[in-house]
Every structure is written in C-alpha cells, then in structure tokens.
Write a structure and sequence with these properties.
single chain; alpha/beta; Rossmann fold; 2 domains; 11-stranded mixed beta sheet; 4-stranded mixed beta sheet; GH3_M; GH3 auxin-responsive promoter family protein; GH3_C; coiled coil
Length: about 500
Amino acid sequence: MAVIGSIIKGLIHARDAVVSDPDPLEAQEKVLRGLLEKARDTAFGKHYEFNKILQAENIRKEFARKIPFFDYNKLNDEWWSRMHEGEENVTWPGKPPYFALSSGTTGKSSKRIPVTDDMVEAIRQTGIKQVGTLANFDLPSDFFTKEIMMLGSSTNLAEKGDHQEGEISGISASNIPFWFRNFYKPGVEIAEIDDWDERVLEIAKEAKNWDIGAITGIPSWTELMIKRILEFHKANNIHEIWPNLMVYSTGGVAFEPYEKTFEKLLAHPVIVIDTYLASEGFMAFQSRPETMSMKLVLDNGIYYEFVPFKPEYIEEDGSLKPDAPVVLLEDVKTEQDYVLVISTVSGAWRYIIGDTIKFTDVEKKEIKITGRTKFFLNVVGSQLSVNKMNDAVKELEQKFGITIPEFTVAAVKRGEDYIHKWYLGVEGKADEKELADALDNSLQEANKNYRVAREKALKGVEVVSISPDVFYEWSAANKKKGGQVKMEKVMKEDKFAEWEKFVRSMINDQ
C-alpha cells in the first residue's frame, strides 16, 4: 500500500507542477461571460437582457448596473418558486435535478436552493483542485492510501417529483465518483441513515474497522461524532481508534472556537484545512499550510462581487440596500469586511449568500469568513461582527483556562437602555461576573464603536454559563442534527426569548 501511496502522491505533485493559477481578472470575466451566454435564453436572462449586457464594453460593470441584488427570499419569490411549479428555463437552462435544503443556521423552515448538473460538476472539479493542493502539505505517502470520513447529512435524498432534495453535503456525497468509493467512509449504507444519532452510533460501531486518514465536516458535529466513538470504545482519544488520522478538513464556520475542544480529543496535532462549501457552491479552500486563509476559486462557475460591510449598506434583515456600492475583485483591500455577492451555474444572480469575508492576501486572493450579515450586533451602534466576538471569546478561553466552543448573544432592553446578554457554552469553571467583565473589556479594546456604545445606551454585559450540549440540543429541536446546521451567534429579541425558555427547560430537566 505504501507503494500505491507514493504513486498517488507523485501524481498529485506532478499535477500541481503543471497546473498554474489563472489570471484572476481574466478568469472572473470569462466565468461571468459564460454564465450570461448560457442563461441568455432563460426567463431571467430575457427579462434582464443578458444579450445587451454581453455587448457592453465592460460587461462586469454593466452586469452590476442592470441587475439588482437578490437575497434568498427575493430570488425565490420572484423566480425560483416558478421551478417548484414545474416551469423550466427559469434562471438556468432546463430544470435542476436537486434542491439543497438549507436554513444556514438553525431554523424550522428550510431554503430550497437549486443545484444543477453544472454545479455538481463545478463542486467535483473544485474538490479535485483541493486534492491537488495537498502537494503543498507535508503529508507522508501512506496518507494517500487511507480512508476519508465524510461527516455530512444523509445521502438518502427525498424524491420530489422530477428532482431530489437534501442538504448539499448529502447531495455531494451521493455523487462521489466510483473510483473514490473505496476510500469513502462511512460508506453508502450508513450514509443513507436519516437519523443523526442512529447514523453516528453505526459509525461508532464500525470505527475500529476503518483506517481513517482524514475527516471532513462541520466542527460542532464532528466533535460530537468523535466523542460518541470514544464513549462507545471507552477510548481516551481518537488516535487510539484511528492512529493514522492526519488531516481534518473543516468548513462553513470559523474553526478557532473549537480548537481547544479538538485538542482534547487528539493524541497529537493534525493538519487542519479550511474549506468554504455552501449550499450555493464550493467557493474557496485552504491551499497552503502557512495560513488558515482560503483561496477563492475564480475559474469554476462562480462570479464574485463584494460590498463593504458597513451599517449604512445593510438592511435590518441582513439584506443589502439597493444602492449599496459594489467593489470588484481588482479593487478589494485587505482586512476590510465585505458582504459576498455571487452569481453561479445554478442560476443564482447577484445573490447575497449571507456571509461576510475579508481578504487576508489580495495578491493570492485568499479570504477568511468573518461572519454573517444577520449576525451583526448593532442595536445601539456597537457594530460587533462575529469575528470580533470570536476573538473576544478566544481571549476568555486563554485567560480563564476554559473551553467555549459555542455562544450566542442578543441586545436585550432593560428599561430605556440595552445590555448585551451572552450565553457561553463553557467546558470548565469560571465566575460569570468575571467572564462578563473580561468580555466587555476585551471588546472595548478591540472595537471603538463598541466602546462608544458602552458610554451611551449600552449599559452593561451579562453572561450566563451553560453546557455546550444545550446548544446542540437547541439545534436538534429546531432542525435535524448534523449536516450544515450551525448555531446562531446573534439573535433578535423574539428568538432570544424562545432560546431562554428552551435553556430553562433543559436546566429544569437535568
């Protein structure tokens, strides 16, 4: 097997040596032109006169001028809903064979996002690109003979007339190429189990029969899977079960809040590789070990635009104001938060995916996800984004010697003023008042807008320390466990009231 691993590693190195990165601007213009040409005869393309855009001297600027921003609700209400009624050639030629179900964060109602054959192929091609970049990491030849645990949602997709529905991880796993099936775990039968707890139990039962070299999955659910395996086998760490585990490929959320928890589950460090696969497409992945930033995929079915993430451009529901200015790829700056806007081979047009990103390296086109447009706490001018909250929580972990893999926060009215009330999922012990003071001080030092707000209408910070398990049970109560489900970091007051009622019920049941 070592010989086979050497051959595979050699092929990856050879491919990496001959495949060069495309010119970013040329690649993006080519993608946009290809999107417009293919969709010109759809209902959307005719309505917005794609033919005229294609004749413009600068099609990127003309595209931005003629087509409005769309969030999911607007695009679905005006266009995608017509596909659900059987209409074809709506925003992309033909009918999509899949719809990805996604609420992004926990929520009982799912979005239904079209996934075309072109998108399935684009995701596959980006996956191949990512495998190619493994040549940049110091991995032994044996690694390339090991199995890969892909922890996603069920591959048992629901049949809905002329299409199938499921989460994007399930759709992707159901389309893995035949040559990869020998490497893929948990395997077809277990992956089809709908119930998360039952699926993870079957994974735990079979775990010792597999030689896992890499795991892919959202951090919170991967952590729970590993803990279930350790509990089942009465093991101290996952390397007792999978001694050759070397890589963890995360995605969808920042890994930093989970880092300390993962360390406790390992006998030795693994290489963490970040990816950006959403229901709308596979947009970026970490391509080199020197950074946790991800390289945007610029030549594979997705066209990008960027709007500065500033309060004056954002509606209260997280959508963009119609006149929000667009920054094109050649004009982006480092360390500026942007709302990501995409157009894709699934017929999403100037679509606000809901994520905010920043460029860490403009030349290499590397980014980090910094938060969500809805996860932006600005009720009293505090202008707190998720990345600032993550940084502050990480400081708490270091200061108090605790682990905080989950949190949520809301601005709560107290009399005429507001406080920020935080629920921290804490492993370990720390005084809540001390946590609140340290959190407040950290945010004031890091964010001048927050500091000004604390001198005016934001009158305090309150912390409630609870078990991280409460967050996972909230996710389970609101939507299926596992898959793409993520916890809301910021809640509105009405949702926060539901959350607090749920926490009280959990505590009373214990």
